[in-house]
Design goal:
By secondary structure, the chain is an alpha/beta fold. About 25% of the residues lie in helices and about 20% in strands. It is built from seven helices and ten strands. The chain has a seven-stranded mixed beta barrel with strand order 4-8-7-6-5-9-10. A two-stranded antiparallel sheet has the order 2-3. It is globular, with a radius of gyration of 21 Å. It starts with a helix and ends with a strand. The structure holds 2-acetamido-2-deoxy-beta-D-glucopyranose (NAG) (2 copies). One 2-acetamido-2-deoxy-beta-D-glucopyranose binds near residues 127 and 167.
């Protein structure tokens, strides 16, 4: 086939434009882009610049190419190395109880029935941690088993900032106790790296994870999603012995 130079040039320009758009897309904070479809991705992308608990250095490089086709290896292979509590992740009871660690209540012991099913996305009053007072104001109906708590963390875009910020919003001790006493919630989702506010780090985790009936999912991307009911699917990896696992979580409208 014969092509005029101008057609070829147009083709080249389109190709460059397409590849540029694709390149830019890689740097967009994505996760909730599928608004026209029924699936909403509420998982953050695992990138070196995402925050990591207690450090200003971020997650840093998690992939290491052990073979690389660009170095004339037959295929490209990567090793994955990251803390199990990275990005969007689920905690196991063994995270905060030595006896649960010893008994094998690892991430693989969590029930898929709890991690998947009807869920309510709610807004926490922006001037509050998730305390007994905040929860009692939110009027979460009895019978609701799964709740994703959107807080000031989302407005502050804390999951998109490399430096760990200890002033994040999370459960207080009173909030954790109130939830156990007054609700039927079995899955708690939050929008930063820890379910517990930093002043209550261990006590709030202990209260929530003690019964081994409540599953805690942390580091969710809840930005720009209307509050309300959805179906949740969260699938941690079956990392035997692990106290947490990175987790893909989606909402279905
Ligand atoms: C990455 O993989 C190479 C090849 O297996 C290895 O020599 C190197 O130590 C690894 N680096 C890190 C940071 O794990
Ligand atoms: C939540 O608690 C943390 C300390 O645990 C504090 O730094 C932060 O200011 C509190 N946030 C709000 C909105 O009260």
């Amino acid at each position: 086939m014969k092509h005029s130079p101008s057609i070829l040039l147009t083709f080249a320009v389109v190709l460059i434009a397409l590849s540029t758009a694709k390149g830019l897309e890689l740097f967009e904070p994505s996760g909730t882009e599928d608004f026209n479809g029924r699936i909403i991705d509420i998982t953050h992308r695992y990138v070196p610049e995402m925050p990591s608990y207690g450090t200003n250095k971020g997650l840093r490089q998690i992939l290491n190419r052990t073979t690389d086709q660009r170095r004339n290896d037959l295929t490209t292979n990567s090793e994955l190395k990251m803390p199990v509590h990275s990005g969007t992740h689920t905690d196991a009871p063994s995270h905060v109880f030595i006896e649960y660690l010893e008994k094998g209540y690892d991430i693989d012991s969590l029930k898929l029935e709890t991690l998947n099913g009807p869920v309510l996305l709610v807004d926490v009053p922006r001037n509050m941690n998730i305390s007994d007072i905040a929860l009692s104001q939110m009027n979460i109906p009895k019978g609701v088993k799964r709740v994703l708590f959107r807080t000031l963390n989302t407005d502050r875009k804390l999951m998109l900032q490399k430096e760990f910020d200890s002033s994040y919003v999370g459960f207080t001790k009173s909030g954790a106790s109130w939830l156990i006493k007054n609700t039927d919630i079995k899955l708690v989702g939050v929008d930063y790296l820890s379910v517990a506010a930093s002043d209550y780090l261990l006590p709030a985790h202990l209260i929530l994870l003690k019964s081994r009936e409540i599953v805690v999912v942390e580091g969710l991307n809840l930005d720009k999603i209307p509050a309300g009911p959805y179906t949740l699917h969260c699938l941690p990896l079956r990392l035997v012995g692990a106290d947490a696992s990175p987790t893909r979580c989606i909402l279905i409208k």
